[in-house]
Amino acid sequence: MRRVITTSMAFLLLLGLTGCGPKLSTWKEEVQLQSGAVLTVQRTISFMAYQPAGGGGGSNTPESSLLILAPASADNPTMWTHPPLLPMVFDRDPDTGEWFIVATFYMCQAWYELGRPKLPYAEFRYRNGQWVQQPLSEKFIGRETNMLIPDQADVDRDHTLASKRKLMSEPTISERHLRVVPKWSSAC
């Protein structure tokens, strides 16, 4: 019995040392606004891979943030951080002048935590110095993404508008990550 406990403890220690926890990645990304202006933002994300018994698998994002680096402006919003959501549209609303983010997710748990909305998105508005979540505005349905929806191979390097276009044109990218879709069937 003592040997089993010692072996188990050694295995857990080794597992902890091999870096099986989430890996934090940061990169700079160019973002073109609807107005044509181009911003540089800093993105931070971490992926936590999982492999359930019986196959399947994927990754969750326990950290996700976005911060405008350039151009510097007094009315730039503060850092947005709302894991496990991933920003896919970042812009200023031409009607209100408010910064907004439409975010999506990889895992069903995030959808559950959002209250199982009809579409796989959450909208955030920058108001009075803070990011406020609200229901998705219908006017954003059909809007194309201007943010990279990364996988683990896409992070830890900076992305220009051209490099994002190339990555987001891969045939494996889900339609709901390319634009705000009007219909969605959950596999959750």
Concise account of the structure shown:
With 188 residues, the protein is of the alpha+beta class. It has helices spanning 2-17, 108-113, 161-168, 175-178, and strands at residues 23-32, 38-50, 58-70, 80-81, 86-92, 99-104, 122-127, 130-134.
As a percent range, the share of strand residues is 25-35%
Overall helicity:
10-25%
- Ranges with pLDDT <50 over ≥5 residues? 3-19, 50-57
Number of helices: 4
Largest sheet at a glance?
A: 4 strands, antiparallel
Query: Helix and strand succession?
Result: HEEEEEEHEEHH
Strands in their spatial order, largest beta sheet: 1-2-3-4
Count of extended strands: 8
Oligomerization state:
single chain
Helix/strand structural class: alpha+beta
What's the N-to-C terminus distance?
41 Å
Number of discrete domains: 1
Coarse shape: globular
Mean pLDDT: 82
CA-atom Rg in angstroms: 19 Å
How does this structure look, described?
- With 188 residues, this protein is of the alpha+beta class.
- The protein is built from 4 helices and 8 strands.
- It has one domain (21-178).
- Mean pLDDT is 82; it is low at 3-19 and 50-57.
